[in-house]
Amino acid sequence: MWTAHWVRAVMQQPSCNIMRGDQPAVLLLTQELRSLVGIDTDPVAHAIAGARLSALQQQLQRPDLSTHLLRGNYSDVSQLLSGVPGTPLVGQVDGMLMDLGVSSMQIDSAERGFSFMREGPIDMRMNPDGDLSAEEVLNNWSEAELGRIIRDYGEEKMWRSVASRPTSAAGRRGGKHIHPATRTFQALRIAVNDELQRLEKALPEAINSLAPGGRLLVISFHSLEDRVVKHTFMRAAGKTTPDEEHMTHGASKYDYADQLEQRVVIKSITRKPAVATESEILSNPRSRSAKLRVVEKL
Prior knowledge:
There is one protein chain. 39% of the residues lie in helices and 15% in strands. The protein is an alpha/beta fold. Strands 1, 4, 5, 6, 7 and 8 form a six-stranded mixed beta sheet that branches. Helix 9 packs parallel to helix 10.
């Protein structure tokens, strides 16, 4: 996660994934940037990002820039920002970028177990100090529990057969669009890292951290993430989500309309999510599923 804060030409920046892409370099090119904050649970990401930021500061001649790399989960963004020395950041952030999911560094590290294309332990912990690994899920969870996460988090139509033989999923042949093990690995990763529940907690905290006029940018990489982001933004903009549609009818519809007005704290900047162009996908195939949504604090 990267966040930005513009107050008297001061910018603060925290991130929920400090290792993806060239975001720090782009931010450092902004001359008004005076403080940069990165948030990630992965100590390897911290080590790499620390060296990268130091080199960028020297290269771009930005000795004035204060950088803070905080180890933690974006679901605790308010608490983490409150601990940054100097000016309190909660309610004062003018820009925040949440880059969800795993980084290329994690995917390409066989020992982290995120990819079914590489031999290694089935781990999948974004925080290597976390209590639960994918291997423990496969070995200790019941077939019913496995079926539930493969169905709900992997959106796998054949979830019953996969749950009965989960270790064979990586060996199944798929069509030309997606390897069948992709959904199973996604489901395991989401369950191990409690991703959707943490995201549901993080987004309201991120919105609350913004100053008036501040913007929150969220990049998601699969439909479950994007649905959480979309519906959270809808609620914060005073719009009706699909699960609240029934409240627009009946005797309580006027009370519900009042509630919608009262919860308006943002406006949408992107009517539809921005997606990668064909040329961007050619240069970075992993961007093909990325969706960017942007809102502004009122």
